[in-house]
Amino acid sequence: MHTADRPAPAAVPTQHGQPDTTEAQAEFDARIAAEGRIEPRDWMPEAYRKTLIRQIGQHAHSEIIGMQPEGNWITRAPSLKRKSILMAKVQDEAGHGLYLYSAAETLGIDRDTMTEQLIEGTARYSSIFNYPTPTWADMGAIGWLVDGAAICNQVPLCRASYGPYARAMVRICKEESFHQRQGFEILYELSHGTEAQKAMAQDAVDRWWWPSLMMFGPPDADSPNSAQSMAWKIKRFSNDELRQRFVDMTVPQSEVLGLTLPDPDLKWNEDRGHYDFGEIDWTEFKEVLKGRGPCNHLRIANRKAAHDNGAWVREAASAYAAKQSRRTADAYQEAS
Ligand SMILES: [Fe+2]
Ligand SMILES: [Fe+2]
């Protein structure tokens, strides 16, 4: 366990001027092995820092871009109650983005740089948000499936070895559970409504099922960085294990909803104690990843416009902060 009175040893310069990090590395390894936490001021291998910046940054961007497909429905939600639930959900996602940008900043990157990378298209975000949301039932399917998959992915991250990331995930996961429930409830009402409503719910589930399975990333055999992330205890389970967990959790819920999942190979396997499921079409995944998904350009263009439109707010906030700090400095001078 990490304690403040036991700091990681600093790298000691050698004769050649190169820091000798052997001792620091040993301390880092021991702490990881003992399920301890690495904190911002601790020594950490450069590759660990870079991996975390990439992963947490990507995660933050996904939360922020993920506001768009649902934000799209706030003005058209079918009732005041639905509107306020959806608005709260989209605001939660903004909050998730902010916790995560802050967690990434503890690793030595600033938020402006991350935002620039997102807008310029050099940083990634989850491909799931590049699909369109043409009907109200999409709000149900996103909550139930996309937030459901996010929970499977993120609950183990509450035990990630990097302290600020793990702590941010605890609150995020609590809110994701609410998101999943509200999505399920939208679909439940639709599937127990008129024929047309049920058909709309089924159509949304048909469109979101496979992309949700892709959210867990490529199969373990094609996921070269996973082993290192697992050794660092950032990642706790493999992509395929998490995907299986999601399928096992979701199939019984689909039965309660009275909706079918669009996979003829989906069936309970008594021997394995898990559901078997069909082949995933990874060509589609790769296309979306390369920026050729249905909404990639729209999402980035919207994000850039929002950033540009917010320039005056950032300027006003920094002018106010500068004024406040001048006032504090003046008051301090007068008092001394
Ligand atoms: Fe979220
Ligand atoms: Fe969510």
UniProtKB/TrEMBL annotation:
Q: A Pfam family this protein belongs to?
A: PaaA_PaaC
Q: What is its EC number?
A: 1.14.13.149
Q: Does the keyword Kinase apply?
A: no
Please give the residue ranges the record annotates as the region Disordered: 1-24
Q: What molecular function does GO assign, one term?
A: phenylacetyl-CoA 1,2-epoxidase activity
Native organism is Brevibacterium gallinarum
Q: Does the keyword Oxidoreductase apply?
A: yes
Question: What is the name listed in the Swiss-Prot or TrEMBL entry for this protein?
Answer: 1,2-phenylacetyl-CoA epoxidase subunit A
Which controlled-vocabulary keywords does the entry list?
Answer: Oxidoreductase
Spell out the Polar residues composition-biased ranges.
15-24
Fetch the SUPFAM superfamilies from UniProt: Ferritin-like (SSF47240)
List the transmembrane segments.
none
Q: What is the superkingdom listed in this entry's lineage?
A: Bacteria
